[in-house]
Structures are given as C-alpha cells and as structure tokens.
Amino acid sequence: MHRAAIRIMERLVTDKEEAPFARKLCSIAIPDIESFPRRLALPGRRFVLLLACDARGVSDSAITAFADSMIDRGLAYLCAWGPECERVHDLFDLAHVTRGVEGGREHPHIMTTWHDDETLDEALWFMLNSACPDEGLAETCEVDLAVSVANDEWDAHIRRRLSDLGQLSEDVLSMDRDS
Questions:
Q1: Please, how many CA atoms are within 13 Å of residue 61, restricted to the half-sphere of its CB?
Q2: CA nearest neighbour of 43 among 80, 13, 79
Q3: Cβ atoms of residues 127 and 75 within 8 Å
Q4: What is the tens place of the pLDDT at every residue in 98-119?
Q5: Predicted TM-score of the model (pTM)
Q6: Rounded CA separation 143/60 (Å)
Q7: Distance (Å, rounded) from C-alpha 124 to C-alpha 161?
Q8: Rounded to a whole number, what is the distance in angstroms from the first to the last CA of the chain?
Q9: What angle do CA 54, 41, 112 make, to 5 degrees?
Q10: Angstrom distance (rounded) from CA 21 to CA 27
Q11: Would you kindly state where each structural domain of the chain is located, as residue ranges?
Q12: Tens of pLDDT along 4-38?
C-alpha cells in the first residue's frame, strides 16, 4: 500500500569521492504520477531525475503530462527505472521532441536512459556517477532528484542508499566484479 502523503528528503553532497558531480541530492515519494507537488522548489535550476515507477497501469497521457511538467521545471536528464521504464523513456523523449517541433526552435538535448535490466541500486549509482547532461544544460544542473511512485519499499530503499553513498558505490561496484 502506498502513502497518501508526500515525503521529501534533501542532502548536500560536498565530497566528489561520494558523487563526482557533487549535485544536491533530493528524494521524493508520491502516491501516483499525477501527485508531484506543483510548487516544489528544488535547490537548483536544472536536475537529473531518477524516476522509479511501475508504469504498467499508468496511461501514456499521464506520463506525458508528467514529462512536460518535469521539462518545465528544468529536467536535464532522465533515468527511468521500473516495469515499463522503456515506455516511460520513450514518452519523455517524445514530449521533448514535440516541444522543439511545435515551438519551432532548438532546445538543449535532454538525455534519457532506461534501466530495465538493472537493480534500483545500479540505477541510483548511474544517476549519481554517470548521468551527465548535454553540454547546454550541464553547467546549470545542480540537483539529483530521485522520485519513487506508489511504492513505500522503493522510497525507503532510495532514502537509505542516498544517505550512505560510499556504501552504495561499494555494493554496486562489487556486483560488477562478481558478475
């Protein structure tokens, strides 16, 4: 069962050993994709988004509306994770491309990845260590935002892992050595 309330966590990373981009870390849990707070002030102009969402029961229009909202707020990079994350990725790409076509002007490229064959730890690690926005957005990208949708276990896992980045890296890198 998912919560009705929205929970938010924020942490400043100052040690490049923990995360090479030294972006501020934020985490938010929402009960459904339509519930992202309209007035949430992120501590930076642009952000990398890890969206942990089971999209199997979520309509294309709801995902597209969420993508548009994230683009309006300063999305620079999307990491999609969870069931049907490739569809989420494709819809974010479509929303971004549609803006360029309809607006008739060039926009910096919003990078998107999907992580359907990775663990949540691996997707988190990727957000922190590999998600580098397009050159036109990278300089103003100051936040890593992890959003978990309708899943208390994912929310708790994200919060725990973001509170100890050294352990997250050690665990993920040891998984790579073991495989």
A1: 0
A2: 13
A3: no
A4: 876 665 556 688 999 999 999 9
A5: 0.89
A6: 26
A7: 8
A8: 34
A9: 40
A10: 17
A11: 7-34+44-178
A12: 444 566 655 545 455 667 788 889 999 999 999 88
Strands (E), the chain: 7-11, 24-30, 46-52, 75-81, 111-114, 141-149
Q: Are strands 111-114 and 24-30 parallel, antiparallel or unpaired?
A: unpaired
Q: For residue 27, what are the CA distances in angstroms to 58, 85, 95, 99?
A: 21, 19, 23, 27
Whether the per-residue pLDDT at 159 is higher than 70: the answer is yes
Q: Which residue has the tokens 């819809």?
A: 91
State the Cα–Cα distance between residues 54 and 81, nearest whole angstrom: 8
**Sequence-ordered list of residues with C-beta below 8 angstroms from that of 177, at least 6 positions apart, any chain:** none
Both structure tokens of 151: 């899943």
Using alpha carbons only, give the angle 11, 113, 8 rounded to the nearest 5 degrees.
25
- The alpha-helical segments, DSSP class H, found in 11-144 are 60-73, 85-103, 120-129, 135-138
DSSP H or E segment with residue 12: none
Taking the C-alpha atoms of residue 4 and residue 160, their distance in angstroms, rounded to an integer, is 21
3-state percent helix, strand, coil for the chain, nearest multiple of 5? 45, 20, 35
As a whole number of angstroms, the distance between CA 38 and CA 40 comes to 6
